[in-house]
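[PROTEIN RECORD]
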Amino acid sequence: MTDPLPYVDPFDDGRSPARAETGMDEASSLIDAVFRFERAVSRIGNARLRRWNMTLSSYTALRILANRPHLTLAQLSRRCYARPQTMTRIVTQMEKRGFVARGAHPESERALSLEVTKTGLAALEEMDAEVLRISDTLGSLLGRDEIVAADRQLRQAALVVERELREMERGDE
C-alpha cells in the first residue's frame, strides 16, 4: 500500500480544513469514488426527471428502447442491469403513460416486443435536454480523452469483477 489516501466525506462540502485518513488503498478509494459518483448521478438525474414523474432507471430504459426497438423485456432488463421484476414494473408504468407499447415480436411467436411510442419519443426528447446536462458537467471537468480512457478502464474492471462473480456462483453450485 502506498501513502494513505484522504477520506472524502460524502457530507463534506469541500470547505472543511481537516481531512481524516482512511487507511484505504487506491483501489478501495476508487470503489468508494465510483459508488459516490453513481449515487450523485442517480440523485441529480432523478431530481431532473421529477417533473415527468420518471426515475433515471425508467429514463434509461426508455432511451435504450428508442435506440433498440423490438427488444423483449428480458433483453431490456439485461441492458439496464435491472432485475426482470423491476423492469416489468418500469415498463408497465411507462406503458400506462403511453410511452411504450408491447406488441408481437418480429422474430419470435412467443416473445413480446417493446417499442417507444410517438408520445414516448416526444417526452424523451424533453427529458434528454435536462438529463444530458450531467454529461456537460462531466465534460467541463474532464477532457474527451480522459472520459474515453476512464470509460474504457471502468468497463474493463467491470468485466473482471463480473467474471469473478460468475466463478464464485459456479463454486456455490
Observations:
- The chain has a mean pLDDT of 84.
- The longest strand covers residues 108-116.
- The radius of gyration is 20 Å.
